[in-house]
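P.,

For your records, the input lines for the assembly:
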Amino acid sequence: MRLATLSNGRPDGALVAVDADRKTMWPAGPETFQALLDGAPTGKPDATGPFDVTRCMAPLPRAWQFLDGSAYVNHVELVRRARGAEMPERFWTDPLMYQGCSDPFLGPADPIVSAPDWGTDFEAEVAVVVADVDRGASVDDAREAIRFVMLLNDTSLRGLIPDELAKGFGFVQSKPPSALAPLALSLDELDGWDGDRLHARMCVDLNGVPFGRTDAGQDMTFGFPELIAHAARTRPLRAGTVIGSGTVSNKRDGGPGAPVAQGGAGYSCIAEQRMIETIETGHAVTPFLRPGDHVEIWMEDAEGRDLFGRISQRVEAA
Amino acid sequence: MRLATLSNGRPDGALVAVDADRKTMWPAGPETFQALLDGAPTGKPDATGPFDVTRCMAPLPRAWQFLDGSAYVNHVELVRRARGAEMPERFWTDPLMYQGCSDPFLGPADPIVSAPDWGTDFEAEVAVVVADVDRGASVDDAREAIRFVMLLNDTSLRGLIPDELAKGFGFVQSKPPSALAPLALSLDELDGWDGDRLHARMCVDLNGVPFGRTDAGQDMTFGFPELIAHAARTRPLRAGTVIGSGTVSNKRDGGPGAPVAQGGAGYSCIAEQRMIETIETGHAVTPFLRPGDHVEIWMEDAEGRDLFGRISQRVEAA
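Structure tokens returned:
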């Protein structure tokens, strides 16, 4: 199943199913993605019409819960080094996770609105939508609960993070709403889904120049079932809960990767590239996002086919 | 307006309005509290029936966002001392806040299910429900957006908190679902509402013995409008967002309060009483919650009238 949500003036939009060539769509049955996740029956392609991706909101325009992991521990290590913080050894065995803003999820072409001194960065992530998960669920139970996969840009305000995290309660102000790519795909639509991870290429262009071409199936220390079980240790997760992977990040030869311009796989956020620049030259060169900048994020399968449609956001001054 | 939500087998229940003497109720108009907050018209008391509080779920059984402040800085100072952590001076001017579990909010009589080594504690809090708040809203705009007040038990797993906070991303596992008292009250029903704070007595009994009789209008360093503006600095808050006060906590003569048994106002969580015991005798005496323990939380106005109905939860082993 390939789902999108059209804007209709209401907070949850109108759910449609889309065919494989993304030319036609039909009412998905339930009015909203949440209603489908809550168990309403699905529709049939008996009233197709043309699919226009520019009418899309986020496929799930708001969710009851968004728990974002940091499963690519290479990213955590680099970003911590970038701000002079050490990474404890246990981060390789005990997932990092915070609860993020799930109302709203921005649409794929919504602007990133931020102030210049907020140090605005993108973070390209894979996200899954689960069915009901019991409190205390095992990793195997968690695996069975995964229903849909989405592509997410977890915008991060690096200028606000050190001060906010120093208070000890995690992120609120430094994590504004995330954006989602137009399509949510059920697992049967994803040849690269191995039950725990999505093997596909995470592509990021910044102002039309390739910035990241990483492999989301590599270097993901914790699979989605482990992230879900971590989230569900002391609370149930109900249908429609979104679990994020954290920023996709690949190592190269056991060390940090290299920029695309140097033949590497690049990065899924600016902070990592700045860290590499600091290591190599003593100071960061690439600036964080400024008004007018343009971020594009998409994923490709092994044959180079686009999976979720494209996140294409411009930065606007707050 | 005095709202409650009856259990009907669906996640959001059925919204009813309740009269002042809590004997009769009528359909509130929209089917759910969220629908009312989203702008659906309200009903009229033309089809009243008997109100049975035992049928109540949380008035808002799930919300799109729950941002919980720590506005009683006295509580923060005591709990930090209890775990050997220092409190930075800026906590008196910059609110602490985390994003908590908002799906589900437990009903007033739902059990607290937890494992013995989780160090389970209650935290009696005031919570408000807001209408739409724009990103970057001022404190004055935030004040205008407050619609309803509720009473909340933010269950906290003290045994899990130090390890989780040490990871730097805030609470997930150490904050399981909170419970709400049966009634949500609009501001015109609350004589003790001054626009920023609720002046009313926060009452806690533990196993039938008075544990806390604090004043929620006192020692609240940040009012709700300041908490809301803090939450909305970089994200919009949409209708139905819940903002928590943090644990109500009073000083006495400029220092920490005293237990009810010693003539003090007592505490709204066990951790504070344990801290006082540690200061006085060198070690904590009061244990955290154990299976079979019974926590009751309610609020009284200046005339001693109950405001929100009663949270009455028993502890069950996970």
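Two observations worth noting. Chain B touches chain A through 50 residues (CB under 8 Å). Chain B has a mean pLDDT of 94.

Regards
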